Amino acid sequence: MSIPQLPRPSAPLHPVGLRLEGRRVVVAGGGTGAYRATVGLLASGALVTVVSPAVVPALEALAASGSLSWIRRCYAPGDLDGAWYAVTATADQTVDEAVAVDAERARVFCTRADTPDASSAHPALPDDEVPLFRDRPGGRVVLVGGGPGDPGLITVRGREALSQADVVVVDHLGPRSLLARLRPDVEVVDASKLPRGRAMPQEEINALLVSRARAGELVVRLKGGDPFVFGRGMEELLACAAADVPVEVVPGVTSAVAVPGVAGVPVTHRGLTHEFVVVSGHLPPDHPQSLVDWSAIGRLRGTVVVLMGVETAPAIAAALIRHGRRPDTPVAVVVEGTTGGERSLRTTLEDLGTTMSEESVRPPAVWVVGDVVQLAAAAAEPTSVDAVSG
Ligand SMILES: C[S@@+](CC[C@H](N)C(=O)[O-])C[C@H]1O[C@@H](n2cnc3c(N)ncnc32)[C@H](O)[C@@H]1O
Q1: Which of 11, 59, 232, 380 sits most deeply, having the most CB atoms within 10 A of its CB?
Q2: From atom 22 of ligand 1, which residue's Cα is the shortest distance away?
Q3: How far is it, in rounded angstroms, from Cα 29 to Cα 37?
């Protein structure tokens, strides 16, 4: 059988938008190129299958959360069966070529990361994302808080920084779908720290920021939420300052406030709560390295917001009750807030551990303790007009 002709690079492109929701798309490769393509595909609702013997931590996190299927081996003929579209970004020209040829034969449009111009499909940047004038202010680091996940919740300044970046160093949380909109020449580095899993050491991240900025590049360090809320942003800022690398901080919308907020739980409410405290739950209360005064927090009347506290939830709930919080205090758990996978649950402090395990709650999740949680339920109750009409 003759090898099908790949598209002529010189022919003009026909601009078209693909409706991929619910459609199978295959991504060959597991590096940051594959990750960039994948986040854009997921944002379009595609059913993504990644084929690669190894993947970067950010892709691993998506596979673990069930957002995509991961076939842990090299690409093989037949992998494109049933696919509407394919992306190949394996960093191995022979494999990329094989995927492109198979796709051509099967009449599946295919984007090759190594040679976009020779691809049958060429991802386009939305018009409003194409930077018309690009000044190159390089040689510095911008620490950008990306917000909790919805790409609309990054600041305008954060978007500007991304549109000018040479390198973007990312975490697995935050507005990852924005990566799909970066110019193709922008390098993405995966610096994810998976909960109790793979993690790029902080010293390595610091050194990377410094070395790339010193090489004259504009480095955007894109973080979930706000860089200074359990984000190790200050460590990165200090490392840059020590190396005389200029740093700009672009604050972000923190998940501690925004994630409960979108689920209808305000962290304060007039006449009900005059305080809220945000606590890291990454260590259980009896851990020797814990810096949290759980007895003080247990005595609070106000709102307690816990981040990184899925695994430790039963131990923390028990400590709060032991130190004075009522066992029937309402609790809201919000998982993957502001994203397509958002889920919220209501329970009480004494039932928190059981609810978390029965509902198979996995990170990222924020849980909120306090009377403010009841307001969400009150807001959801039908008004008398709804009740009559409904
Ligand atoms: C390392 S902390 C970083 C917090 C981040 N700097 C911020 O301001 O939101 C990660 C934790 O934030 C919370 N988190 C971040 N994004 C979230 C989201 N979209 N939904 C639920 N929780 C989220 C989870 O508790 C997660 O374990």
Answers
A1: 59
A2: 365
A3: 10
Active site annotation includes 308: yes
Q: Give the domains, in start order, of the chain with CATH numbers.
A: 24-118 (3.40.50.720), 138-253 (3.40.1010.10), 256-378 (3.30.950.10)
Spatial CB neighbours of 385, under 8 Å, sequence gap ≥ 6:
none
The rounded Å distance from CA 231 to ligand 1 centre is 9
In the reported structure, the alpha carbon of residue 148 is separated from the centroid of ligand 1 by a whole-number distance in angstroms of: 7
Residue 40 in contact with ligand 1 by CB distance below 6 A? no
What tens digit of pLDDT does each residue of 58-110 get?
999 999 999 999 999 999 999 999 999 999 999 999 999 999 999 999 999 99
Ligand 1 atom nearest 339 alpha carbon: 19
pTM of the predicted model as reported, rounded to 2 decimal places: 0.82
* Best residue for ligand 1 mutational test, from 62, 153, 173 (most atoms within 8 Å of Cβ): 173
Q: Is 259 in the pocket of ligand 1 (CB under 6 A)?
A: yes
